[in-house]
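Quick one, tokens below:
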């Protein structure tokens, strides 16, 4: 049986022709935007982040019938902004050529799936880092709580959809919605989110850690949501169960990557804040 993906790399002969053609059109737009008025001093930064993205997403961890790896597209987006439209496609192209990760016809759609979250990570990071009180323990706890809440609801939704698919042969969206947004489930998720927020206030993390945690986690979640949607809507075969399984596999990756981006942001704020467009921060109280 042909596996549709290696982690989030969609292979050849998996998608209907209109989908992978649309992916190349989208890729052309992203690369044109990324190359628009590029300056000489931007080139080393793009090269550095392309290399980081290539290395991070080349190390696959086998998990059952599938595999997972770090993405780092959120970090690429935060550092490069629109230039992420150059770095990520170049990294995916090198993986396809050198490591046989993903297909050649799907380089376009794979690039779109991973670049769009990166482009959204940049403005999200910019807005959050300018929010008053971003470095205060209370606000940092809120960011960690939101990260935990979103992750738990994603787990419940994907788990219910996969259960419905395996047991009834269809995606039961109503069941997933009713369970995920049941008052008891929301209350339980809120309690766990509060516990995560309280734990954050007791840990000796950099004040900027929760900001990177949230942006890194949301970038991975949006990437696998787009990946899942493309497989379900554009697959030549019924890849629904595989797509949902792959989504669940990447939830721990979202946590790990969020932590990595959090530590990286905290480090860069201290040694090279201009890489993040950091405008200074309040003193922690």
């Amino acid at each position: 049986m042909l596996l549709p993906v290696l982690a989030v790399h969609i292979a050849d002969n998996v998608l209907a022709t209109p989908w992978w053609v649309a992916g190349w059109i989208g890729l052309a737009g992203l690369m044109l935007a990324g190359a628009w008025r590029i300056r000489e001093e931007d080139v080393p930064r793009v090269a550095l982040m392309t290399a980081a993205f290539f290395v991070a997403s080349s190390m696959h961890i086998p998990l059952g019938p599938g595999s997972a790896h770090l993405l780092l597209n959120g970090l690429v987006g935060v550092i490069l902004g629109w230039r992420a439209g150059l770095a990520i496609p170049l990294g995916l192209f090198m993986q396809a050529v050198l490591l046989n990760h993903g297909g050649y016809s799907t380089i376009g759609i794979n690039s779109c799936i991973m670049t769009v979250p990166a482009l959204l990570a940049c403005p999200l990071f910019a807005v959050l880092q300018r929010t008053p009180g971003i470095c205060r323990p209370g606000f940092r706890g809120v960011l960690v709580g939101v990260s935990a809440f979103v992750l738990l609801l994603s787990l419940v939704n994907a788990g219910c959809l996969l259960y419905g698919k395996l047991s009834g042969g269809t995606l039961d969206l109503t069941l997933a919605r009713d369970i995920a947004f049941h008052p008891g489930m929301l209350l339980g998720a809120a309690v766990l989110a509060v516990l995560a927020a309280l734990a954050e206030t007791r840990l000796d993390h950099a004040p900027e850690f929760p900001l990177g945690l949230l942006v890194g986690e949301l970038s991975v979640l949006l990437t696998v949501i787009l990946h899942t949607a493309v497989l379900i809507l554009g697959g030549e075969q019924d890849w629904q169960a595989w797509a949902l399984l792959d989504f669940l596999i990447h939830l721990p990756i979202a946590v790990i990557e969020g932590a990595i981006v959090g530590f990286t942001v905290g480090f860069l704020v201290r040694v090279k804040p201009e890489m993040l467009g950091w405008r200074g921060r309040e003193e922690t109280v």
